[in-house]
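Dear support,

I submitted the protein below through the web form. The confirmation email said the job was done, but the results page showed an empty box. After a refresh the structure appeared. I'm attaching both so you can tell me whether what I see now is the final result or a partial one.
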Amino acid sequence: MKYLIVGLGNIGDEYANTRHNIGFMTLDAFAKASNVAFEDKRYGFVGHCRVKNAELTLLKPSTFMNLSGTAVRYWAQKENIPVENILVICDDLSLPVGKIRMRGSGSAGGHNGLKNIESCLMTQQYARIKFGIGNEFPRGAQVDFVLGNFSEEDRKVVDEKIEYVGEMIKSFCLQGLDRTMNLYNKK
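What the results page shows now:
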C-alpha cells in the first residue's frame, strides 16, 4: 500500500520554527527517525520510506500554506495514491498547545491550507492530524501569533508530541484510520 503523508508549513528560514510550521517540524522529525532525506522536487520537498509493507511518500509543499492543495494533488496523482491514503498534518488554533486530534474528514475550520487541499482534491474526505498550537493572542493578532515562534515552555510540549504524531503516522499506514483514531484520540 502507498501513502502520502503531508506536513503543512511555509518555506523559508523566517518560518522554520513558527507555530504554522508544525506540519513541517513533524515530518522533519519523522524523516530523521526514518533516515530519510528530503529532495527538492516539483511543488515540494519529498522523501520516501517504508514502514513494514507500507510505502510512504513524505511531502512538505513548497507552494506556501495557502496553495498546499496543488502539491498534494500533484503527488497523489504522480504516486497513484488514493485519497483515503492521504494524511495531512497541520496546526490548529482551536486546540490547546500539544493537544492532538485526528479526523477522517471534516471542514477546514478556517485553516487556509486545508481549504485549498479540499478545493484541489474536491473532497473533505481525507485524513488529517490537527496539532494544537493554542490561541493566546489579542483580537486581530492571529497572523502574528501563527507566524510567531513557540515559547520555550510550549516548545517542550510540542517536541514531546511530535514523536507521538510520528507513532500515529505509522499506525495510520499499518492499522488504518479508524483504529488509529480509537487508539490515539483518547490519550
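Response: this is the final, complete result; the empty box was a page-load delay. DSSP finds six helices and seven strands in the chain.
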